[in-house]
Design brief:
single chain, about 325 residues, alpha/beta, Rossmann fold, Dihydrodipicolinate Reductase, domain 2, 2 domains, six-stranded parallel beta sheet, six-stranded mixed beta sheet, 10 helices
């Protein structure tokens, strides 16, 4: 099978992890170029050692490359601010863009929840939300498939060592974009997101807590089944994704949702998740890299599959 050439913009932690993941594991993609702005970055050095063309001249350097015309998909692993400029240039050249920043120009994509509907729409820009969104939105969606969720809140805790400059600069965008994804993709009426950069040494694995508040009576068995099914779907492309413990159900008599409608009674559903990374670039504690880059690679592979007339895989259908 001929592999589709792709470019990765951003030679930091996320871009380099994606580079290695595609190089080692993808059967339908090949990295034709890695783009950065720091000539001494570890990511550019890694790409050069693999014989992959690089540039430290940013997006202009990519456009000037001889391989640019052959590249049909570009991953942007830079920052929300930079992505707006990158999107304009790449779109003008007819490239499909997978946005790994919280810029949210294109529609949100969480592969096991809504990828196929967006592939059918043939958008030129797809946004991968955030690492916290990729980890938690599937759980909110799984609960929303069984019961109405007026409020959902997530807390994503990642190792401080795994957060590069781009992630640190985009904390506000992270929380805003993740909250919107909880609502738009997850199906909650109101969503809230919190990120914690944990400085623990040794570094901790990525941990995510999902709180969903459901009004009235709930079918706990149906919710557990829906969550287990969704966890299995995510684990097909992120093997380190798992439940940390059994789902918790707690009754409440009165709940005010962020100053909005007060709900008289219902159930708080708490789901604890852990994501162990594959260790492509940073060690296995960096599950936040793995869930983001795995989702992006799975999305790109499905785009290619659709283009050559193949059927989507189970995890992303």
């Amino acid at each position: 099978m001929t592999r589709t050439p792709v470019a990765i913009i951003g030679s930091g932690n996320i871009g380099t992890d994606l580079l290695l993941k595609i190089h080692r594991h993808s059967k339908s993609l090949t990295v034709a170029a890695l783009v950065g702005i720091d000539p001494d970055s570890a990511g550019l050095a890694q790409a050069k050692s693999l014989g992959i063309e690089t540039t430290h001249a940013g997006i202009d350097g990519l456009v000037a490359m001889s391989a640019f015309d052959e590249i049909s998909i570009a991953f942007d692993a830079t920052s929300a601010g930079a992505h707006h400029h990158h999107n304009q240039i790449l779109a003008s050249h007819g490239k499909t863009i997978l946005d790994l920043t919280p810029a949210a120009i294109g529609p949100f994509v969480v592969p096991p929840v809504n990828l196929q509907q967006h592939l059918a729409a043939n958008h030129h820009n797809l946004n991968m939300v955030t690492c916290g969104g990729q980890a938690t939105i599937p759980i909110v969606a799984a609960i929303s498939q069984v019961a109405s969720v007026p409020y959902a809140e997530i807390v994503a805790s990642i190792s401080s060592r795994s957060a590069g400059p781009g992630t640190r600069a985009n904390i506000d965008e992270f929380t805003q974009t993740t909250a919107r994804g909880i609502e738009i993709v997850g199906g909650a009426t109101v969503g809230k997101a919190i990120i914690v950069l944990n400085p623990a040494d040794p570094p901790i694995l990525m941990r995510n807590t999902v709180f969903c508040f459901v009004s009235g009576d709930v079918d706990t068995s149906a919710i557990e089944t829906s969550i287990d099914r969704m966890v299995s779907k995510v684990a097909e492309y992120v093997p380190g994704y798992r439940l940390k413990q059994t789902v918790q159900f707690d009754h409440f008599d009165r709940l005010a949702v962020l100053g909005q409608t007060e709900h008289q009674s219902g159930t708080k559903i708490t789901t604890y998740l852990e994501v162990e990374g594959a260790g492509e670039f940073l060690p296995k504690y960096a599950g936040n890299l793995d869930i983001m880059t795995s989702a992006a690679m799975a999305t790109a592979e499905q785009i290619v599959a659709i283009r050559i007339g193949q059927q989507p895989t189970e995890a992303t259908s």
